[in-house]
Amino acid sequence: MPLPPVRGDRLEGRNVVEEALIRKRRKVKRIWLDAGARLDEKLQGLLAMAAAANVPVETVERSRLDRMSITGVHNGIIAEAAEIEQPTVKEAIEQAGFDAFFVLVDEVQYEHNLGAILRSALGAGVTAVVIPTERGKGLTPVVQRVAMGGAEAVPVIREGLSSALAQMHRAGIRILAADMEGVAPWDLDLSGPIALVLGGEDKGVSDALKKRADAIVGIPLAGGLQSLNVSVSAAVLMFERVRQVKARAG
């Protein structure tokens, strides 16, 4: 049997498909399920949501799922879904208000890094993640699988980063660029509306983007370590903001 063409997004794995059904930001068009899958409580719940949303489910041999898979890890379930409609930076700023918390990521080349950043962004209450219009990875199937639902809840906006930062500056959002030579995050005020700028795996934040920053933030390291993985750095900085906001709230 020929493989179905990809129209929209291919979602692979139970958690990713489940989050798409729960969040309802886009239409899940159909689901393919491993005919030998064990019908446990989690899978029953997923199928109940699919039925409630009138999503057709087709049981197929696992070998067919293997051939359909783009990520190589489907966990017995693949879905076809419409692409997520994303806001513009301007719209996201207007919707966020004083709680605005943006993460801008320049030229991330490894899909697992962007996926991990999105997963942390969901947990940290990030307003949106902004990535360049063309450079770096976008919302690929691998990114969405690694994000474990983060891509369903956190908008991923593709716009020029310089333009995005200019809009944020005009809106009164403080801009913090990440660099290992910067001030420790616990010595900076990370509360209020902020935008955190992260560089790619090899280059870091460009000088042009650093010039737009109100402050440079870095993570002090021991043991002679020179740097952290970009997704780890992002998580450390995001959750330091969470800690500060909660501490100020009492």
Distance between the termini: 60 Å
Mean pLDDT over the residues: 92
Q: Biggest β-sheet: count, sense, barrel?
A: 6 strands, parallel
Shape type:
elongated
Number of strands: 10
Sheet-strand content, in percent, reads 15-25%
What would you report as the Rg, rounded to the nearest angstrom? 20 Å
In the CATH hierarchy, the architecture of the largest domain is 3-Layer(aba) Sandwich
Q: What count of structural domains? A: 2
Class inferred from helices and paired strands: alpha/beta
Per CATH, what is the topology of the largest domain? Alpha/beta knot
What is the helix/strand order? EHEHEHEHEHEHHEHEEHEH
Provide a compact summary of the structure.
The chain is an alpha/beta fold and 250 residues long. The chain contains 10 helices and 10 strands.
Question: How is this structure best described in words?
Answer:
The structure is a single chain. The protein is an alpha/beta fold. It has two domains: 73 residues, 60s Ribosomal Protein L30, Chain: A (2-Layer Sandwich); 161 residues, Alpha/beta knot, CATH 3.40.1280. Helices cover 38% and strands 20% of the residues. A six-stranded parallel sheet has the order 7-6-5-9-8-10, sandwiched between helices. It has a four-stranded mixed sheet with strand order 1-4-2-3. α2 links the parallel β2 and β3. α1 packs parallel to α2.
